[in-house]
Design goal:
By secondary structure, the protein is an alpha/beta fold. It is built from nine helices and twelve strands. The protein has a domain at 2-157 and 186-211 and 259-274: 3-Layer(aba) Sandwich (Rossmann fold). The strands form four sheets. It has a six-stranded parallel sheet with strand order 2-1-3-4-5-10, sandwiched between helices. The structure holds NADP nicotinamide-adenine-dinucleotide phosphate (NAP).
Length: 289
């Protein structure tokens, strides 16, 4: 089976490429310099030339805080880029899997979010991703998979786990927000789940995260606990609780955006990995636990 992957050099795309050939996928993955998803002609040309069975879009503008001042660019990539790919997929035709985010929700419900819960993005990034989803649905209806994920970490890029590991080694004290809750998701698990979805002849919107809910503070404590062996004999920072209000950032984040994963569980025929298991596997992969 042949996949055309946009965003293959990013955090999630890297994990998909790493697993694809072992799972018998042939992957074509042009980097942004070769194919810019905001250019419809480039997108159509690469898809019609490659004739993939499935297109997976992991390309996105992901700088959540910077998006507040680069709104036009965020919408160009996250909404218009997604639409360009959907239109090209409808013309060939080719199946499409598009990746989206928990930031399409405002996080005020205080319970795990289902796919059709009310959307109310509270940041530019969240709005641009929501409009990207809507653009894909306008063109392809329910035939495309729109896969929302959250709190991703993997080997590539800057993410919470890698940042914590560095701060725990460099500092005496690290303050972490205790009043925002997520389902931390190992990009390795998600990459494999997306490849499984690529084999299915169906579509729809899915919530794809590792299972379970944790505050950023408790997540940081677990990272510290599991990495103790790595710091043997060396000082490790103390993790201290703080609140989202005292940790102001340009873009607002949802307070509670853990996912209800019942739907993806039935589509894949198995439950997602628990977040603790994902973290343990990831730390093992990078030689820390
Ligand atoms: N990271 C998270 O915590 C998180 C949470 C929820 C959802 N998501 C979603 O998951 C998906 C993957 O995220 P990620 O963390 O893997 O992102 P990432 O590491 O920032 O990677 C994004 C990729 O998109 C490429 N890209 C950007 N603009 C492009 C353009 N105009 N044309 C072609 N490629 C372009 C980038 O290429 P260059 O590096 O060359 O610019 C990069 O390879 C995204 O849809 C994101 O919204 C992420």
């Amino acid at each position: 089976m042949k996949i055309l992957l946009f965003g293959g050099a990013g955090q999630l795309g890297h994990e998909i490429r790493k697993r694809a050939s072992d799972l018998d996928f042939e992957t074509v993955s042009p980097v942004a310099k070769e194919v810019d998803i905001t250019e419809p002609d480039q997108v159509l040309k690469v898809i019609s030339g490659c004739r993939p069975d499935v297109v997976i879009n992991c390309a996105a503008y992901t700088a959540v805080d910077k998006a507040e001042e680069e709104s036009a660019l965020a919408f160009k990539i996250n909404r218009d880029g997604a639409r360009n790919i959907a239109i090209a997929c409808s013309k060939i035709p080719t199946r499409f899997i598009h990746v989206s985010t928990d930031y399409v929700f405002d996080g005020s419900l205080g319970r795990p979010l289902k796919e059709d819960d009310p959307k109310n993005p509270i940041s530019v990034y969240g709005r641009s991703k929501w409009e990207g989803e809507e653009a894909v649905r306008d063109v392809l209806g329910e035939s495309a998979f729109i896969v929302r994920t959250q709190a991703l970490y993997g080997q590539m890029g800057v993410n919470f786990v890698q940042t914590m590991l560095k701060l725990i080694g460099d500092r005496e004290l690290v303050k972490v927000v205790e009043d925002q809750w997520v389902s931390p998701t190992w990009a390795g698990w998600l990459g494999e789940a997306l490849l499984d979805l690529a084999r299915l002849q169906s579509g729809g919107t899915l919530h794809a995260s590792c299972q379970g809910t944790v505050s950023w503070y408790d997540f940081a404590c677990e990272i510290r606990r599991l990495s103790e062996g790595q710091f043997e004999g060396r000082r490790m920072a103390v993790i201290e609780r703080t609140t989202a209000n005292s940790f102001a950032r340009p873009a607002k984040r949802p307070i509670y955006s853990a996912f209800d994963t019942t739907k993806i569980c039935s589509v894949l025929g198995r439950p997602p990995m628990k977040w603790q298991e994902g973290l343990r596997l990831f730390l093992g992969e990078i030689g820390i636990a």
